[in-house]
Design brief:
By secondary structure, the chain is an alpha+beta fold. It is built from 4 helices and 9 strands. Strand 7 and strand 8 form a beta hairpin.
């Protein structure tokens, strides 16, 4: 009787273990649609990152070039100067001139100046420049014109064409015909609207 009871208990225990094992479910593998969604999301993320580009750096417009220099020369020598009855010549460090004893342009450039150039009360560093790029407290001299060679009167004109650190074009004039105790050559911005407008428009071109 006891043996039968023991057998019954063993049988019931075995049946319980089988039932428990049937209730434990194996983890299910992701369906094909789930895999597709995951793959598409990863691809989209990769594609987005690969197509993201840095904004292109803005190119500086304006400044000075040989082409602009040629256009200014043509305007002054064949149009603007003759319209005023004045004959101008271009001066560069390779083509020197003389303005009432001051060599131009070297005599007004800071490094080789014979007189200090005073620009409306300021004395910035003046230097000859091929591209017109100036730093703080500088003026880039890109052109010099004077009518002193063919004008023997005491009313001669010397023009400096400059770009400031902001890239703005300025046209300076002096008619000073003698020295002074301060040893300064005084310039003011020209009041000739035609010349100023032509130069500033030229500077602003790409």
């Amino acid at each position: 009787m006891k043996r039968s009871s023991i057998l019954v208990q063993l049988l019931l225990s075995s049946l319980g273990l089988v039932a428990c094992s049937q209730q434990v479910q194996k983890p299910t593998a992701p369906s094909s649609s789930q895999l597709s969604t995951t793959t598409n999301t990863a691809t989209s993320s990769t594609s987005s990152s690969s197509t993201t580009t840095k904004p292109a750096s803005s190119e500086r417009t304006g400044g000075w070039t040989e082409e602009k220099s040629a256009q200014l020369k043509d305007y002054i020598l064949t149009d603007w100067g003759p319209a005023l009855g004045q004959t101008y010549k271009s001066y560069t460090p390779a083509t020197l001139g003389n303005f009432f004893g001051v060599p131009i342009p070297d005599g007004v450039l800071t490094a080789t100046a014979t007189m200090t150039a005073d620009m409306n009360g300021q004395t910035p560093e003046l230097f000859w420049s091929m591209d017109g790029h100036a730093q703080s407290n500088q003026l880039a001299v890109v052109a010099v014109y004077a009518d002193s060679e063919d004008n023997r009167s005491m009313s001669q004109h010397l023009y400096l064409f400059t770009l400031n650190p902001q890239g703005e074009g300025q046209v300076w004039i002096t008619q000073q015909n003698q020295g002074n105790p301060e040893n300064r050559l005084y310039f003011t911005e020209t009041k000739n609207e035609d010349l100023r407008h032509f130069f500033t428009q030229l500077v602003g071109q790409p």
